[in-house]
Amino acid sequence: MKLVRTKDELRTLRRSWIFKGEKVAVVPTMGALHAGHLSLVEAAKKGADRVIVTIFVNPKQFNNPDDLDKYPRTEEDDAAKLAPYDIDALYVPTPDQIYPDGFATNVSVSGLTEDLEGAHRPGHFDGVATVVSKLFLQSRADVAYFGQKDYQQMLIVTRLSKDLDIETEVVGCPTVREEDGLAMSSRNVRLSPEERAIAPAMKREMDRAAEAIRRGAEIRVVLDSAKQQIENAGYGAVEYLELRDAETLAPVTDLSRPTRLLAAAMLGDVRLIDNIAV
Ligand code: PAF
């Protein structure tokens, strides 16, 4: 595994691989790697000849400065976790490699970004779209692996890659969960033992709600009751719990097309999100 810090080094490596006709995958991350990220690395190893993992804690996508300060930075541990996967490059760019002096371009995807996470985290998806565009173009990967845990993000990066004719195909991979159903997230380490015990309530109530909706219960009533249950379990006010079209994220009133149930809520001072297919 080669540790790469500059885009020029990355380009040189990439060129040597293209020359041999090898397929290149990228797994963009912000570090603090857990089993969810490692499942993306595994998928990348199966799907391509060469695998680049990137670690960059992207300041532009943090709407809350406190969240940026508290975001875990664990490069050495991350490198150790990646070692058994025998990836080709770990790209950990210095900030100037992503945002050089005078950087003035913003990638903004309309529609998909405006609601749900977008409504609660102003500017977040512009930051994601901008950095992901740069990582796609710097790596010139043929394929990129993203977790469905960040479902809205996965749809947005798929859209931007198509819209900007970037030749990186986006592949979404299933959310990896703890045994009690909690979705793996780099933020979970910030939960106190009491909060960690409460945390699975969100997914549990989402599963119940999905089942009731499938059985024909009235969607609004089911969602209101599930929100209440999540709050009763010890979460703060639920920011959203919504049934949406799985492709466009438009609100839905029935199950005539594939749908996704998406939720976000604070648990103590940790913001957790999750989503499941209905
Ligand atoms: O999902 C993440 O970790 C980040 O949003 C990403 C895609 C690496 C962009 O910074």
Describe this entry's structure for a reader.
Helix 7 crosses helix 8 and helix 10 runs antiparallel to helix 11. The N and C termini lie far apart (40 Å). The protein is globular, with a radius of gyration of 19 Å. It folds into two domains: 172 residues, Rossmann fold, CATH 3.40.50.620; 92 residues, Pantoate-beta-alanine ligase, C-terminal domain (Pantoate--beta-alanine Ligase, Chain: A,domain 2, 2-Layer Sandwich). Strands 1-4-3-2-5-6 form a six-stranded parallel sheet, sandwiched between helices. A three-stranded antiparallel sheet has the order 7-8-9, with helices on one face. 40% of the residues lie in helices and 19% in strands. The chain is of the alpha/beta class and 278 residues long. The structure holds pantoate. The site of pantoate has 10 residues, from strand 2 and helix 7.
Quickly describe the structure.
Keywords: ATP-binding, Cytoplasm, Ligase, Nucleotide-binding, Pantothenate biosynthesis. The chain has 278 residues and is α/β, with parallel strands linked by helices. Helices cover 40% and strands 19% of the residues.
